[in-house]
Amino acid sequence: MNILLKTNTSNPHLELRDLKRFKDGSGYSSLLVVHSGAFQAEISFYFEEPVFDEFLNRLIEMNRTLSGKAILKPYYEPEYVAFEMLTAGHVQVTGELFEYSAPSQHLEFGFEIDQTCLSPLISDLQSCKKEA
Fold first, then answer.
1. I need a labelling partner for 43 at 20 to 30 A (CA). Which of 18, 19, 24, 35 fits?
2. pTM reported for the whole predicted model
3. What domain range is 19 assigned to?
4. What does the pLDDT look like over 15-48, one tens digit per residue?
């Protein structure tokens, strides 16, 4: 399943492409696709089931209360994607990605979206949980 953050523009762009649950049910794998200004990345991104549940619950709470932060991050790796509610319905999306190759690669990104982008994202994430 593909989970796309619908921003009504082609840039910024955030997508969990080909999101799949591990056969043992312990977590998920996907290709994280990010376009933020002039920067782009497509990188394998993994996270555990409890992390996904907490991320989804915090997004739901953010959407309801218009405050808070939600982080999608594997337990033992530094990569992450975070959503933080700012003032006046603005949501800051940030992240940090690493590729451990020679030489190593590192991308730190950030952009803002409107709070109205959260509801479709939450709905898609909930559908993914049901399908998995």
1. 24
2. 0.93
3. 3-131
4. 999 999 998 888 999 999 999 999 999 999 999 9
